[in-house]
Amino acid sequence: MNENGASTQPEQGLAPAADPEPVVVFRNVSIAFAGPPVLEDVSFSVAPGETRILLGPAGVGKSVLLKLTNGLLRPDQGSILLFGEEISHMPEENLFPLRTRTGMVFQEGALFDSLSVRDNVAYQLIQEQVPDDEIDSRVRAALRFVELEETFSLFPASLSGGMRRRVAIARALIRQPELLLYDSPTGGLDPVTSTTIIELIVKERDVYRTPSLLVTHRLQDAFTLCTHRFDAEAGRMVPLPKGHTDPNTTFLMLEEGRLIFDGSLHDLVHSQNPFVREFLE
Amino acid sequence: MQPFFPLAGKPMAFDTIDRTAKKVVLTVQDYSLFVWRAVTNLFRPPRYWPEFLVQSDIIGVGSTSIVLLSGFFTGGVLALQSAATLSAFGATAVTGRFVSLTMIRELGPVLTGVMVSGRNASSMASELGSMVVTEQIDAMRALGVDPMRKLVTPRIFACVTMLFFLTIVADAFGILGGAFVTIFMNHQNGTQYFSMAWESLRFPDIIQGLVKPLFSGFIIASIGCFYGMRTSGGTEGVGRSTIDAVVFSSVLIIVADFLLTQILLSLFAHL
Fold first, then answer.
1. DSSP for B34-99, written as a single string
2. pTM of the model
3. The domain containing residue B89 runs over which residues?
4. Is B107 a domain residue?
5. Nearest to B144 among A67, A97, A111 (CB)
6. Which value does ipTM take for this structure?
7. Mean pLDDT of B126-143
């Protein structure tokens, strides 16, 4: 049993992602910034439809790993495959089309201060010169998904921290990406707002089944993601039956730049690794 | 016990010089690559013309008042100073010639460059620096947009274009400032002032005055954007980048002015 009272058996009736072609592959990736390695010999993959939760205390290189995934940073060693393409040494110009297929939610939202919520969410559509009417309707749909339609013409400065994250999620979702990257989406938020954000992530996972990589140091958020599902009829997140977990939501854990755990919630809570045990307790 | 080598373990002067030299070379290398990318972006799509127009408005229209005022009063000061000296030789009639040549060949371009640098290199460095530290630049890249194309190239192109016209404004208002002092304070003949100012000008003078702002504009925007885009260290880092951008762009404008004057004078020596 985990701390939420649910056991860690996968949800029956839901098969784990079966497609053999992973969306993201890390092979022996290492990176350093003028000092000891931030990440060392990291290898893992993200399969289609899979949600991978990257756990670890602050400063172990979780955000760096996320930025390596879409080529915002380049590894010193190893290779990274995004949608089957090797991106470690890919020129920046060739990376831009690949990045448009991904959505990224930054730690503090990283909304453009000088643009309205509408223009922030529609940023990619505006670059693609999509007609204004279509932009408006798609932005409203994305904002409706995060339950912030009323912020359409506001500016980021007038939004709360939680609202900024939700707008950032709407921005990441507007082009229906093939991969979602969440960088500590609940960091620095109060518990109620954190639950709202996690509910949105569960909703996204269960409605669109977009593969995603989520970075967090908050264990309760990770467990909530694994032990809840989105009930489309009720329009809210509900717990899975006792003893069941989402089979496509799995865990990674970093310790001082090294990947020390890769597996399911069941494996995580039964791990004998002292660092994992300490982190869980 | 006193160690045998009293300075053992402490950085030697040579190490400091070595590190500083490497840092300078690395910065120059980074700047060269940065400028190369920014300029070559002009010749490949996508090009962000709306950004160019917005930046032209901010740099050009926004700087008009400070350029106009500094030009006018510099022209006035030149007229005051020159009249005092020229009267000793009975040559106050050439005040117009002195003011127009000095403004058009030298002070117009340099003053405009330094004024615009103080206003725009700082704003570019702080704006881009803030975007870097709040991950907005990374967000832009993650959304598939090249910040070099979207933010840097339009600023450089706009600054070069606008500085050209701002310098013409500064020159014109400098000559008017000189005329104001000559007519209303020194009580000399205005027609004579303008006639001397006009007749003394030659083609090389105009070329000198109009080539320099192209370089100044390039220096202001490229240095401002360069320091902004390499900002690190939070809000304190933004402050550092802003200071560096203004200091380096102002100094480089004067250095470039010296070099350009030397080159242009030798080019037009036969005229």
1. HHHHHHHGGGSS---HHHHHHHHIIIIIHHHHHHHHHHHHHHHHHHHHHHHHHGGGT-GGGHHHHH
2. 0.85
3. 47-267
4. yes
5. A97
6. 0.87
7. 95
